[in-house]
Write a structure and sequence with these properties.
There is one protein chain. The chain is an alpha/beta fold. It folds into two domains: 8-146, HUPs (Rossmann fold); 156-292, Rossmann fold (3-Layer(aba) Sandwich), CATH 3.40.50. The protein contains nine helices and ten strands. It has helices at 18-34, 62-83, 98-106, 126-137, 164-180, 192-195, 209-230, 245-253, 276-283, and strands at residues 8-12, 37-44, 89-95, 111-116, 141-146, 156-159, 184-190, 236-242, 258-262, 289-292. A ten-stranded mixed sheet has the order 3-2-1-4-5-10-9-6-7-8, sandwiched between helices. Helix 1 (18-34) crosses helix 2, helix 3 (98-106) runs parallel beside helix 4 and helix 8 crosses helix 9. It is elongated. The two termini are 27 Å apart.
């Protein structure tokens, strides 16, 4: 099996669905700019086809399944060549559980990219659930690409809450915004009820909303200070809003080129869980979204 290098972007290539090829194109454009190697990965899950995330191979001989998979990889390679024929591209056909395969790959890849074709309030498909599970187990950044037209979108949106994970996401988003020539849209969303202990107005300390707003704005400014210093020419838009972080980030990203969030998944179940915000934005995918651990 070929080794994976740290400057390699790995892309999940599944059979059927335009979201997969959008993901391949997105990854190819990134690889072309960064000079990264691109690995196109297709996983044949030989478990029963009704298992969540499994490729449907029931009724096919191993040879037929391999042939269909190779055709899918060839189609993806053609998309890469259309973006930039100079990209070093490797195709890999794997067997096993897709989540396990991508978890292993994530230990050495610089980024995983997967497609998701569930958006605009439609019911979750198995592929959508699979992308969430891959994001949860990944040891590297994961980009989940929806089947949405990218033309006319503007800005890199990032969620900021002052945490270490948020700082990591903010630094990544600023680099991406500068690379893409886009404004950075930093969103800090805070919950009044949570800030006063969940019983606002009924026994909890009365804190003026204006004072809270100023304090929350200061959190955003503190987080942004090193980013502004490192990227002096970058356009930065600040959004401080009292509300639900998932809803506010989703609203800010509806017309964005990219959404970036840090994951707060941690503890004994961290391998299987994302933080509530990253889980929420992936469950209502409105833009290409990168989740960072």
């Amino acid at each position: 099996m070929n080794e994976i290098t740290v400057d390699e972007i790995a892309v999940g290539v599944s059979t059927g669905g335009s979201a997969t090829m959008r993901a391949v194109r997105w990854a190819a454009e990134r690889a072309s700019t960064l000079g990264s190697t691109l690995r196109l990965v297709h996983v044949i899950d030989e478990a029963p086809a009704d298992r969540e995330g499994a490729e449907a191979t029931s009724g096919e001989t191993p040879g037929a399944a391999d042939g269909r998979s190779r055709e899918c990889l060839d189609e993806a390679a053609a998309v890469v060549a259309d973006v930039d024929p100079g990209i070093e591209t490797v195709t890999t056909l794997e067997r096993g559980n897709a989540v396990d395969v991508f978890e292993r790959i994530s230990a050495e890849a610089s980024m995983l990219v997967v497609g998701s074709d569930w958006h605009d309030g439609r019911r979750a498909s198995r592929r959508r659930v699979l992308s969430l599970r891959i994001a949860a187990v990944s040891q590297t950044a994961v980009a989940v690409i929806p089947d949405l037209e990218p033309v006319g979108r503007r800005g890199v949106v990032v969620g900021v809450d002052g945490s270490h994970a948020s700082d990591h996401a903010l630094a990544f988003a600023a680099d991406e915004a500068e690379r893409l020539g886009e404004p950075l849209i930093a969103v800090h969303s805070w919950d009044v009820v949570a800030m006063v202990g969940g019983e606002y107005g009924y026994g909890a300390p009365l804190i003026a909303t204006d004072d809270l707003a100023r304090a929350e704005a200061e959190i955003l400014e503190t987080a942004l200070a090193p980013v502004v210093a490192a990227h002096p020419g970058l356009e930065v838009q600040r959004v401080v809003v009292a509300g639900d972080p998932v809803n506010d980030l989703t609203e800010a990203a509806i017309e964005a080129r990219l959404l970036v969030v840090g994951s707060h998944g941690r503890g004994a179940l961290a391998r299987f869980l994302l933080g509530s915000v990253s889980q929420g934005v992936l469950a209502d995918l409105v833009a290409p979204t990168v989740v960072l651990r």
